[in-house]
Amino acid sequence: MASEHRLTDGVSVEAIKAFFADLKREFPDTYTEMTTEDACKQLVVPRTRQDNCAYVEQLRKQSPEHVNKATVFVSHAWRYKIADVLNVLLEFADEQARKDAAQPVFFWFDLFMNNQNANVTANLPQEWWSTTFKQSIANIGHVLLVLMPWRDPVPLTRAWCLWEIFCGISNEATEVSIRLPKSEELELVLAIADDYEAVTDTLVRVQAQRADAFNPHDKHMIFTAIESWAGGFSAVNQAVKDKLRAWCLQKAVGAVEAMRARGEDSTDAFAGLCGQVGTVLSQFGEHNKAIAYYETALAIRLRTEGEKGRNAAALYGNLGNAYGDKGDFDKAIELCKKALAIKVETLGEKHSSTAVTYNNLGNAYRNKGEYDKAIEFYEKDLAITVEVLGEKHPSTASTYGNLGAAYHSKGDHDRAIHYYEKALAIQVETLGEKHPTTASTYNNLGAAYKNKGDYDRAIECYEKALAIKVETLGEKHPSTAQTYNNLGIAYKNKGEYDRAIAFYEKDLTITVETLGEKHPGTATSYFNIGLLHAKRGDKEQACAYIQHALDVFATTLGPHHPNTRKAKQNLQRIRGGAVTRQHTSTQHVSESQLQQQNVLAHRNLLLRFISSAVVYQAFAPQRNLLMRFLGAVAQVHAEARRPANTGSDGEDKKTETGHDCPRGCSAPARALYKDACKCPGEPLIGWLRKRGRLRAAFRTRWCALIDDRLTYSKGPSLAERGRIPLSSVLSAELVHGGEELHVAVSGRTFVFRLHARSDTSLADWCTAINSRINATT
Asked: Compositionally biased, Basic and acidic residues: which spans (predicted)?
């Protein structure tokens, strides 16, 4: 390691081959069983002890051409057999050499690069782990994870390896490759074909907080670095799991293509593998590809088993779920009904698998907005599930929860609460109070009570959800901070500003720790607290918080950013000083500007009508919005034909800036116009395609820009899959010629593409996000 403790140099492929040859020559009978640690103690240390240096330093003196800037960082476990590790490195280098315009590979391999005669990490400062070490891996640009054995991957239990993997995958520009020894490749493929879920369950048992290290000092330093990262252990665990799932997906697809290349694409084995891969692809949001694999498998099964065979119904059901996930609910319903008919005939009405299909039909109808039909099928599912599995079973609780969601979507909040509470009681008894699913149901209950207007009960439920999050995720987790923020909003809406401030302060403490003091998200927290102090009449505190927010906004976003201007305007308003031109001055509004305002107002009213039709499926609100839209159009067009109302100097009367009605409009028209102009602050909703973490596949998601967050889920009425607090957004911009929307937060960029059924362009989403970014309260 260089004197400044940066990871810089690497050794060539020829140097790896030479070392391997030395190992075989020195230990001909035992080298295949030697671990990396054995090779260190028995070969590297004896050769470097006299010079007290790293193996690479000797290599540099003897063969300097075999030392150069590292291009690949090797992550491995010292318990591995050294022969397996070296073979993986050579196989990887051979793959790289076959690529077009491939550059020579130089491996940063700790066995060679560190001085094995001393503890090189003992005197490193704590910040080295989260700064220099991480930056060094980014500079190398490629991490090679040597993974074995796949049934019990050693790197996932070692603190060093987990931190190395995370440092690679947390940087978008760093490539991460995963390799198994050739001896394990075939075994993994066979396991995937037999039970993909079992394979992924094995691979993703990642718990960084339980990882170990040979050196307790190293473990402490690494754990401290993990805890300092936004999200801590939870973020590291999730990032590594996502990467391993994506790698396993590549292996599964590769196995299918290999069978196809061998001419085995009409066998039952091929059908089974296609079915497994379809499920994997569906989980990754690649619904069209999943459907193609399912249909391939179904064609083979129908030919070999017939429609009443044991596999056809399952494939029809999987196809239905895939179509439902991509938003084609009519096709989903058609396929699920085919699966149901087969199951009823072959398994009987009172079978758990039949109940699952009733549940799937309920989901499809709920996503389609036909809530009564959804409830009908959920109730059939419930009757079978209770009879087969009993009342006190998690599956029964799940069905109660689905019934609650259907009634919630329908607007029947009392019935929703009834079913959510039944689900909660079972979950507490079967899963325990401190379980993520239990927390989710508490959250659903809180939402139902909130929509009903019972804010006290809503707060009670949110507080229980918070307690579970604190215990399971920790106090310093972004999700915990978001829950504090939600409670703050709830109390603010109740008018209890002191309580609201207390929760906002808790949110602020975590936000400062995870994002830093000089961050737009932190500034937003300061700004929100300042506004609440203003509402409660504490002018001095309000000015102090908003001034701090203004300083951070100006530093991080610039003096002309909307958030900076908004903070400045509110600060001036609260201080009672000069107000902005927006409130005091007037400006001339040209005829073209008036026409543009009219068009925008009409467009916004129309978008509201479309949104209402999609989300609420309620005829009265649709009719009202449509009539208001048509009325506004007729009113403004009629008034546009009237003579202009001019002043004594012959010029048009000037209007103030902001949401003011065009000149000459009647009172009803002005009301319609101003209401329409408020629309940009209302929810923006629709289908988009969202890329998974770590360059995974794009998944179809129902997105909603509501209040202070951008949320995404599998359907309009389904639970959130995730949310992006606007307070954490650093930027939102269109890239690749406008084909992708990139929403950047600290440590990650969310990537969206347009969906075929999108009613709103990516430019509209980008504009809407930027108009609200960090400016919610």
From this structure: 650-661
